[in-house]
């Protein structure tokens, strides 16, 4: 059995009651063809669905999955959370979520490992200030080439609750950190219910190449920043007629041709 690579995760939400979560462990699996997932939530005992199938309750661990993108849903009473998550072979993806009936007051993070170095940080909302070990490193989205070892990441933005994450960056790996911040109670009280907007989603249709290119500009000369597959879902941010500005499940934003996507009926 190969030696396990471990990193510990804990969360602290500021300006609300202090909640401490149990340590989460990410490791290399002995079978490099397999991928794992560990899911924690507050409150715990939330029902876990993977690709629409109920597989148990939080805290939940499965280290015998395939390397692929899976749809993860957590449900506790009337509160729920859904996201497509990419699993990497030989590692365990960590999901930690604070569930709330109002999506704006829900928060959490997804942590992944891949070959490389440093840390890649995404957030919702974007433009969140990143502090690592007490030093400011700009705003999200951000890649920081920090050394391996244990680090404390603090993400903050006006009107949102700060989020602090303590994690170990193993040597030879890139830590992927995707964080959702919750609105502060003050901002939540100022949300006018008649003006709540419905988030539109897009679904990728069949393409001649079998995939759809996501570009950094709304034209064919735009640089390719990602590729998505038939059936994948995107969040529509802006309709530009022949192009759509979209957000991917990993938090990236870009443009796709409207010819190869269709709006999902809510």
Word description of this protein:
The protein has one helix and 23 strands. It is mainly beta. It has two domains: 10-191, no CATH class; 201-263, SH3 Domains (SH3 type barrels, Roll). The termini are far apart.
Q: What's a quick, concise take on this entry?
A:
The chain is mostly beta strands.
Give me the secondary-structure topology.
Elements: E1 10-13, E2 34-42, E3 47-50, E4 53-57, E5 60-66, E6 69-76, E7 79-86, E8 92-98, E9 107-115, E10 119-124, E11 129-132, E12 135-139, E13 142-144, E14 149-156, E15 163-169, E16 173-180, H1 185-189, E17 201-204, E18 211-215, E19 224-229, E20 233-239, E21 243-247, E22 253-257, E23 261-263
Parallel strand pairs: 2-8, 10-16
Antiparallel strand pairs: 1-15, 2-5, 3-4, 3-6, 6-7, 8-9, 9-16, 10-13, 11-12, 11-14, 14-15, 17-20, 17-23, 18-19, 20-21, 21-22
| Helix/strand class | mainly beta
Between the first and last Cα atoms, what is the distance in angstroms? 48 Å
Radius of gyration: 19 Å
Biggest sheet layout: 7 strands, mixed
Q: Can you tell me the residue ranges where pLDDT is under 50 for at least 5 consecutive residues?
A: 1-30, 186-197
Would you list the SSEs in sequence order as H and E? EEEEEEEEEEEEEEEEHEEEEEEE
Largest sheet strand order: 5-2-8-9-16-10-13
Compute the number of structural domains.
Answer: 2
How much strand?
over 45%
Shape: globular
Mean pLDDT level: 81
Helix content: under 10%
The total of beta strands comes to 23
